[in-house]
Amino acid sequence: GAGVRLAEILRRLQEKEGLNIVCVSTAYNRKFFENNGIRADFKNIDSNFKFESFAGLYLKSLLTILKSFFLLKKDFLEKTGANTVLYSSSDLFWEVIPAYYLKTRGKNNEWIQVIHHIYPNWKKRPGKKIINWLGYHFQRFSFRLARKKADKIIVLNSIVKKDLVRMGFSKGKISTSSNGIDVDYFDRIKKETAGYDGIFLGRLSPSKGIADLVEIWENVCRKIPEAKLAIIGGGKKEKKSLMEKIEEKNLSRNVDVLGYLEDSEAHRILKSGKVFLFPSHEEGWGIAATEAMACGLPVVSWNLPVFGEIFGNRTMQIEKGNVGAFSGKIIELLGDDALRLSAGENGRDFVKKYSWDSVAEGELEIINSC
Questions:
Q1: Among 72, 189, 284, 300, which is disulfide-ready with 117 (CB 3.0 to 4.6 Å)?
Q2: How far is CA 297 from the centre of its chain?
Q3: For the residues of 158-198, what is the DSSP string, one character each?
Q4: Confidence category of residue 249, pLDDT binned at 50, 70, 90
Q5: Which SS3 state, helix, strand or coil, does residue 98 take?
Q6: Is the pTM above the cut of 0.90?
Q7: Is 253 helix (H, G, I), strand (E, B) or coil?
Q8: Predicted confidence band at 294 (pLDDT cuts at 50, 70, 90)?
Q9: Are 90 and 2 a contacting pair, CB within 8 Å?
Q10: Spatial CA neighbour of 300 closest among 356, 261, 347, 264
């Protein structure tokens, strides 16, 4: 997601002369960046407040923001110079509010805001309504701040750009970038000896289509009783609910819910699979699908408009909601090795065009244009 994208870009930008990168974040994120080879001046802002829900996460984030104002004012604001660029890698409010604050306090600060995708109406979004309501309104709050003060907006597809212009953003401030993929990294990954027929990799949330996965795989198993699906992704409560549904459908022998895995392990399993299931209901780009394509797996997804723009016809896009057609395409691929391997190889060749090096160069141009 946004963290992976930021790490890939920072790793390349830190090699540029004249760039002094300061990361203001939590100790957890600092460890993530350091493990990904990021050398920067880290400013840790943490809270001992524990949370067990999204509401708790929002509360902890608000407390962390309040704490950050004191650190930023004391240790950062006073040192800002003519070339200070504030870079918010997502529109989550805990990234937007500090950037807005620093922008208003420092006349030399330039603010670049990345917006990945726009949440649909909270009433229609899959999942709990209170969580959807919070997410929708917090994003709209972030949008108001960015629309007012951000110098540049980076989006990952033209659909988001058009929607933002309709929402009152200045068209001239919006630049379209993309995500990237390190195909050489995936080429070096060794396959597991035993692979899964189907793989899902992503956050366990309703918006990612996890409810669809069980129904889709139930149909697959009616035709291929031994078919096995691996579900990789974090989300404690969602995992419990998902496993209950799997047991209810008598699919325990056919579905392994592996939970969160480190990238190295997750990618080994991914590369050993046959077909990638991507029933997400909303995406700004689709990094997980790109990783699957880099591993040589054909991707079956719903026909979200963004996928047509990013992937063209290199993925197999099914009319959204047509579970029978989605299942049927997986069954077809599992039953035809030549078709599956050909589709996977075509996808792998295609994603080579999305290089992190070119993405980082594009972001640097945007930074220099401020």
A1: 284
A2: 19
A3: HHHHHHHHHTT--GGGEEE------HHHHHHPPPPSS--SE
A4: very high
A5: helix
A6: no
A7: coil
A8: very high
A9: yes
A10: 347
